[in-house]
């Protein structure tokens, strides 16, 4: 299990990050004493460090140099400063990457994953893979496979994203805006018509797994995944 | 010379009157002839001219100094000559200059402190913003959408404050590199996806393959964000597009056109849209116009060496053109 050390003085942010990272099977610890960061780092011996720039006593750059003297583990800065020079400063002080506030969980997680992968080999250890199961229907987000019992069906990226969102909130309504936001891609953005097309495709894939009416349209609101199918 | 003559003219007039009066007194007394008075007049006039010449030459640079106004603060200072008048004027100016400089310095210091404070404060505000952002992430439904929208507005407001404060120290804070225009545009549009989706207005990007520009990514992204915010704010109908055209213009200069299908800007307002705090007709009928967006766009593009142009047709839309 990978251990992540969080050096950040905002309690709220630390709590949220810890909760989120625990869900993906990471062990986390936050700094208690901002004068003894070095000592706490040595005791915890983390695989990766999340580091804020503005800290009490010394700034993040200082602690980054201190940690570099002890370890070569990935260090990711989390800072409100988004200037190029700030990022250059961070990298020159030994950081590996830079995340600007406010940030998305997904971006933080993606960066953490990729640095762990690079530093400790591909997908070694740690429960970092994500799969969702709703009443026997299983979605493998990494491999783009939807399965139910022994039946399996391949998904496109966009279909997987839609199902991911619907299954996470199974039983409740997911708005169209939310889905549009989720599947918005840098390369091709999606308007309402395209979303309709994708939803139809998702329905087809579901029916290929013998799930009819699983994905319901809620007029004027959005879509809802109803677990009205039995265990296969 | 002119100033000197004007300055000395009362003396000359008095002198001539005096000459006339004395000549007259002697004539009425009947003691002397015309020739003697003329001779005396000539002698004393020569004396006067000699005095004037001496005065003029000893104070020449002083008079020149009075006539030529300094172009900048560095040019100020007194006359170089050492006549008593020049000397005391120099002392006076030097003293005034010092007082003025002290004052200016203290204001500059206060301003710098203020900018520093604003910077710190904005960055400080970003942590609570991230916390709220994380809390509502993964949550759906009207209240969370509303909070998300307000959060976006706060973020945008803070960015505007930050970039306005930074404009003065631009020289320390930019990094020019070769960028792929399409990638920059896509990055910004996808960052603003919430706004696009909420308004049901979508971007249409047509950029020449591999079109490269030389710019600072952060500042340019801020400029594009401002343009997108404007385009979306003034597009009232759903299902419209904001077009991004990237092409090679005259003399091989890359050009980016951002065209919306919104309400347009009345011709009377068009020449002033780049002025600070100018909101115009649209600003009064739409919320949240600060009149700073396009002003900042113009200023930043100016500093980056890009040219900005705008054209608009009421009810048809507005096009902003950036020439790199």
Automatic annotation (TrEMBL), chain A:
<feature type="modified residue" description="4-aspartylphosphate">
    <location>
        <position position="52"/>
    </location>
</feature>
<keyword id="KW-0238">DNA-binding</keyword>
<feature type="domain" description="Response regulatory">
    <location>
        <begin position="3"/>
        <end position="116"/>
    </location>
</feature>
<feature type="domain" description="OmpR/PhoB-type">
    <location>
        <begin position="129"/>
        <end position="227"/>
    </location>
</feature>
<feature type="DNA-binding region" description="OmpR/PhoB-type">
    <location>
        <begin position="129"/>
        <end position="227"/>
    </location>
</feature>
<dbReference type="InterPro" id="IPR036388">
    <property type="entry name" value="WH-like_DNA-bd_sf"/>
</dbReference>
<keyword id="KW-0805">Transcription regulation</keyword>
<dbReference type="InterPro" id="IPR001789">
    <property type="entry name" value="Sig_transdc_resp-reg_receiver"/>
</dbReference>
<protein>
    <submittedName>
        <fullName>PhoB family transcriptional regulator</fullName>
    </submittedName>
</protein>
<dbReference type="GO" id="GO:0005829">
    <property type="term" value="C:cytosol"/>
</dbReference>
<dbReference type="InterPro" id="IPR039420">
    <property type="entry name" value="WalR-like"/>
</dbReference>
<dbReference type="GO" id="GO:0032993">
    <property type="term" value="C:protein-DNA complex"/>
</dbReference>
<keyword id="KW-0597">Phosphoprotein</keyword>
<dbReference type="GO" id="GO:0006355">
    <property type="term" value="P:regulation of DNA-templated transcription"/>
</dbReference>
<keyword id="KW-0902">Two-component regulatory system</keyword>
<dbReference type="InterPro" id="IPR011006">
    <property type="entry name" value="CheY-like_superfamily"/>
</dbReference>
<dbReference type="Pfam" id="PF00072">
    <property type="entry name" value="Response_reg"/>
</dbReference>
<dbReference type="GO" id="GO:0000976">
    <property type="term" value="F:transcription cis-regulatory region binding"/>
</dbReference>
<keyword id="KW-0804">Transcription</keyword>
<dbReference type="GO" id="GO:0000156">
    <property type="term" value="F:phosphorelay response regulator activity"/>
</dbReference>
<dbReference type="Pfam" id="PF00486">
    <property type="entry name" value="Trans_reg_C"/>
</dbReference>
<dbReference type="InterPro" id="IPR016032">
    <property type="entry name" value="Sig_transdc_resp-reg_C-effctor"/>
</dbReference>
TrEMBL record, chain B:
<dbReference type="InterPro" id="IPR005467">
    <property type="entry name" value="His_kinase_dom"/>
</dbReference>
<dbReference type="GO" id="GO:0005524">
    <property type="term" value="F:ATP binding"/>
</dbReference>
<feature type="transmembrane region" description="Helical">
    <location>
        <begin position="34"/>
        <end position="54"/>
    </location>
</feature>
<dbReference type="GO" id="GO:0000155">
    <property type="term" value="F:phosphorelay sensor kinase activity"/>
</dbReference>
<protein>
    <recommendedName>
        <fullName>histidine kinase</fullName>
        <ecNumber>2.7.13.3</ecNumber>
    </recommendedName>
</protein>
<keyword id="KW-0812">Transmembrane</keyword>
<dbReference type="InterPro" id="IPR003594">
    <property type="entry name" value="HATPase_dom"/>
</dbReference>
<feature type="transmembrane region" description="Helical">
    <location>
        <begin position="12"/>
        <end position="28"/>
    </location>
</feature>
<dbReference type="InterPro" id="IPR036890">
    <property type="entry name" value="HATPase_C_sf"/>
</dbReference>
<keyword id="KW-0808">Transferase</keyword>
<keyword id="KW-0902">Two-component regulatory system</keyword>
<dbReference type="GO" id="GO:0016036">
    <property type="term" value="P:cellular response to phosphate starvation"/>
</dbReference>
<dbReference type="GO" id="GO:0004721">
    <property type="term" value="F:phosphoprotein phosphatase activity"/>
</dbReference>
<keyword id="KW-1003">Cell membrane</keyword>
<keyword id="KW-1133">Transmembrane helix</keyword>
<dbReference type="Pfam" id="PF02518">
    <property type="entry name" value="HATPase_c"/>
</dbReference>
<keyword id="KW-0418">Kinase</keyword>
<keyword id="KW-0472">Membrane</keyword>
<dbReference type="InterPro" id="IPR004358">
    <property type="entry name" value="Sig_transdc_His_kin-like_C"/>
</dbReference>
<keyword id="KW-0547">Nucleotide-binding</keyword>
<dbReference type="InterPro" id="IPR050351">
    <property type="entry name" value="BphY/WalK/GraS-like"/>
</dbReference>
<feature type="domain" description="Histidine kinase">
    <location>
        <begin position="120"/>
        <end position="324"/>
    </location>
</feature>
